[in-house]
Design a protein that fits this description.
The complex is a heterodimer of chains A (273) and B (254).
Chain A lengths: L11 H16 L2 H28 L1 H5 L3 H28 L3 H5 L5 H31 L8 H28 L5 H5 L19 H7 L3 H15 L4 H32 L1 H7 L1
Chain B lengths: L7 E10 L2 E11 L4 E5 L6 H9 L6 E6 L2 E2 L11 E4 L11 H11 L5 H11 L15 H13 L5 E5 L7 H18 L2 E5 L3 H7 L2 E6 L2 E6 L1 H8 L4 H9 L2 H9 L2
Parallel strand pairs in B: 3-8, 3-9, 6-7, 7-8
Antiparallel strand pairs in B: 1-2, 1-4, 4-5, 9-10
Helix pairs in contact in B: 2-3, 4-5
């Protein structure tokens, strides 16, 4: 005879159980593990060699050496953080396992927490080897950024979670028909959040949009650090404030969509598609 | 909690999807320790009713309580005492049997998850393929794994949707024995949706027939056979599915 522990509203043990389970899924397929490293590595090699070549042609480019590679690595944190969250969520959908999970004591909040932790694990699997490539081949030491890297990382990963939360809610509500959003949603920010160029280069109306997005502050902050050697704490504070607003809104939207999925029956349908 | 509180209470349950009524005013109670069959043809409203009991679907109106807990508002307070199995829900095929059961043992907060996996593996004859990928098992083996998951927390309330569908007679009989044993040993309440009428006759204390979103009959199998003047539950099922039992029930005052 088995005695379950008493009901708990929030349980780190359940989050741990989910992370472990998702880790089992990830490690069961070496092509998926390889894929986590493959694209960031290809991107780093391409942009790295481009930066070397441009640096040889122009003094300005030489002065800003590192900003391109820094942008590539930080953009990868944003994209891979979001994908890590979304792909882990999609794995549950593909496996028709959402019904089992939602019928267990696992709460939506714990589920989201496990997806967030898993996105960090997946991100690290890709980021560590790619940052080593940047160091060895191009002399760019991401980890040498120190504390600012932590500020950049936190802001980018929280933005990626906010976007992915809304996407996960839409998939729960509308089924796998909304799956493509998981792969593409984050890229909507790319032209306007000043990844490879300063916000000032954008047309005035677009600049307003750019300053409403937390990643713009991160990429501006990265350039300030690498070009001027200054850590702009004010930019990070703005990014953090905006992230707090966006993440709260995203969590509310997710819960709303989750409840809507319970009302329309799509939560159940997502298990049998 | 008082033993008088029914395991499952469904009161005037209504569920509409985009103007289409899937369940229309369904009410029933399942006492502690009973095995009750939920029967009906395709589209009768069984899956919606079971989903509402699980809290995966929010009723348009009416109430569903499990062990006295309102499933619309407080389902998370009671989910650790429930479980379910359905052919429409899978366990990840790339995980081993051990990993799958272990995950749910942990999600249900069992004090010794690994010991529980070993116990279930022995009980359900899973030991030989505990470390095999779940997706590579035969249909019968997968059903046993799904049953292990459904029994992992020794639930007080168990919802089973077609637990023996697509199984050979021997495996199906074995599964039925295990379900009955869970009720006998644990005193659990079991709601069983099935199209296998022999299974229903053998396992169920009571049968609820649904048709077009409503309950058209609710009685023990023997009583239904007698009242509808049929020899088998299969005949009763066909009558109900075609609407003839409604008339028979009205005539007999059931």
């Amino acid at each position: 005879m088995t005695t379950p522990l008493p009901y708990r509203r929030f349980s780190p043990a359940r989050i741990g159980a989910m992370v472990l389970r998702q880790w089992y899924v990830l490690r069961s397929s070496w092509p998926r593990l390889l894929e986590i490293v493959y694209w960031p590595a290809m991107s780093m090699l391409t942009w790295g060699f481009l930066q070397v070549w441009v640096g040889q042609q122009s003094t300005m480019a030489a002065m800003t050496a590192g900003t391109l590679l820094g942008a590539v690595l930080l953009w990868d944190i944003l994209v891979r953080g979001g994908l890590g969250f979304s792909i882990t969520f999609l794995e549950e959908m593909y496996a028709r396992n959402i019904g089992n999970l939602m019928m267990s004591p696992l709460t939506p909040l714990e589920f989201v927490a496990s997806l967030s932790l898993m996105s960090i694990i997946r991100l690290m699997i890709g980021l560590v080897p790619v940052s080593l490539i940047a160091l060895v081949l191009f002399g760019f030491n991401l980890w040498g950024l120190g504390f600012p890297l932590i500020a950049f990382f936190i802001n980018l990963i929280v933005t990626s979670w906010a976007v992915s939360l809304v996407v996960a809610g839409l998939i729960l509500r509308h089924g796998l028909g909304a799956e493509s959003l998981a792969w593409t949603a984050i890229f909507i920010m790319m032209p306007v959040c000043a990844v490879y160029y300063p916000v000032s280069i954008l047309p005035a109306p677009v600049q307003m949009l750019a300053w409403s997005l937390p990643p713009s502050y991160v990429f501006e902050g990265m350039r300030a650090l690498l070009v001027d050697g200054v850590f702009r704490a004010d930019l990070m504070a703005w990014a953090l404030g905006l992230n707090a607003i966006y993440f709260t809104l995203a969590a509310l939207v997710f819960m709303r969509l989750f409840e809507k999925a319970r009302t329309t029956g799509s939560l159940l349908a997502s298990s049998s598609e | 909690m008082s033993a008088d509180v029914p395991a499952i209470e469904v009161e005037r349950l209504v569920k509409t999807y985009n103007g289409t009524t899937a369940v229309d005013g369904v009410s029933f109670r399942i006492p502690r320790g009973a095995i009750v069959g939920l029967l009906g043809g395709n589209g009768a409203g069984k899956t919606t009713t079971i989903s509402a009991i699980m809290g995966l679907v929010v009723p348009t109106s009416g109430e569903v309580r499990v062990l006295g807990t309102d499933m619309r508002r407080d389902r998370h307070r009671i989910l650790h005492r429930m479980n379910f199995e359905s052919p429409y829900v899978d366990l990840p095929g790339r995980l081993t049997v051990r990993q799958n059961i272990l995950t749910f043992a942990r999600l249900y907060g069992l004090p010794d998850p690994k010991a529980r996996v070993r116990e279930l593996a022995e009980e359900l004859d899973l030991t030989d393929f505990l470390d095999r990928a779940t997706g590579k098992l035969s249909a019968g083996q997968k059903t046993r794994v799904a049953l292990a998951k459904a029994l992992v927390n020794d639930p007080d309330v168990l919802l089973l949707d077609e637990p023996t569908a697509s199984l050979d007679p021997d495996t199906a009989s074995w599964i039925r024995d295990r379900i009955a044993r869970h009720r006998d040993e644990k005193g659990a309440s079991i709601l069983l949706a099935s199209h296998n009428m022999r299974e229903v006759e053998r396992l169920c204390d009571r049968v609820i027939f649904m048709r077009r979103g409503t309950v058209v009959a609710d009685a023990p199998p023997a009583e239904l056979l007698e009242r509808y003047g049929r020899d088998t539950m299969e005949d009763v099922f066909i009558d109900v599915a075609r609407g003839q039992a409604v008339m028979a029930a009205l005539e007999s005052g059931l």
